[in-house]
Design goal:
two-stranded antiparallel sheet; 6 strands; two-stranded antiparallel ribbon; mainly alpha; Dna Ligase, domain 1; elongated
Length: about 300
């Protein structure tokens, strides 16, 4: 009786698997390991603070930078970040700047940006309307600048009311209150410089011109109104009549100008205060639509009230 050779191997060894299948298994294994490595070490942390700004000071070491990034939850691994910066060849040439992270970024992108000094701090435009006071200015900047401290701004701006020029400014989002004050005041100085010779011979102090301009800015509706109203208000001061303007309620009883500007005037209002237009008018009022109606005397003013303010 012939005996048959019976293969007792019920499975297959790796060597029995076709070569192309081995490659697939290896690739799958490598892919799995890569994704594990990526999500554990390279990817952005789940609580990545979108919109964060990190300040890299001059002379700051790579270890200190990685510590800050880890503390701010921008990276998962300090050694990985440091290694990537070294690989990029920038560990000794890191550029000091304020780095803005507008979205979640993997660690190699953060290392690349910091290594190349790509701070991504695009300036934003901030427009301050003519006549705004420091409180109103503080509200605008507080809403748009991350490092702006409104309370500190108002405290420092108290003595600069009237001397912060209304304009469109461009700031990095991390600008603080001191930068705002400095730039706005420097802008005022540049704008007023050409007018100072005329102010010197006007018979008025620069401070009084700015106070009057701040009132005109609130009271007038346009260029033509500014100069006429300026003439009326200077005339009231000249004859000893209270200014009686709604923009500064204390002037209804007190004669002369307020002690300080009530806002920050633009160039046209300053020029109107400096070059008032003579007219026969002594009174004016605003109707509900904002139109201004002038009167030569109190009787005409009463008639205008009856006609336009009913």
């Amino acid at each position: 009786m012939e005996t048959e050779n019976i293969n007792l191997n019920v499975g297959h060894s790796v060597s029995d698997i076709p070569k192309n299948k081995k490659i697939v298994f290896y690739l799958l294994g490598i892919t799995v390991l890569f994704f594990i490595f990526y999500f554990l070490l390279l990817s952005a942390p789940k609580n990545f603070p979108i919109g964060a700004v990190v300040k890299v000071e001059p002379g700051m070491s790579l270890r200190r930078i990685s510590s800050i990034l880890k503390q701010e939850k921008l990276i998962r691994s300090r050694p990985i970040f440091e290694s990537l910066v070294i690989i990029f060849g920038r560990e000794k040439n890191i550029i000091s700047a304020d780095y803005f992270f507008e979205k979640k970024l993997p660690v190699f992108e953060i290392a690349r940006r910091i290594g190349k000094g790509e701070h991504h701090m695009a300036p934003i435009s901030v427009t301050i309307p003519e006549g705004f006071n420091t409180e109103e200015i503080g509200v605008i900047f507080d809403q748009q600048l991350t490092n702006f401290n409104k309370e500190k701004f108002l405290s420092a701006a108290h003595e600069l009311e009237g001397y912060l020029f209304p304009d469109t400014y461009f700031f990095l989002t991390n600008a603080d209150e001191q930068e705002v004050l400095q730039l706005m005041n420097e802008n005022f100085e540049e704008k007023i410089e050409s007018l100072r010779p005329a102010i010197a011979v006007s018979g008025q102090t620069e401070h009084d011109i700015i106070i009057m301009a701040s009132i005109i800015e609130k009271e007038a509706q346009g260029d033509s109104d500014r100069k006429i109203i300026s003439g009326i208000l200077w005339k009231r001061i000249l004859i000893g009549m209270p200014l009686q303007v709604d923009a500064a309620m204390e002037t209804y009883k007190k004669k002369g100008l307020p002690e300080k500007p009530i806002g920050n005037p633009g160039l046209e209002a300053i020029q109107a205060a400096l070059y008032p237009q003579k007219s026969p008018y002594l009174y004016y009022l605003h109707d509900p639509d904002g139109n201004i109606h002038y009167a030569k005397n109190f009787a005409e003013h009463v008639a205008n009230k009856s006609k336009y303010l009913r």
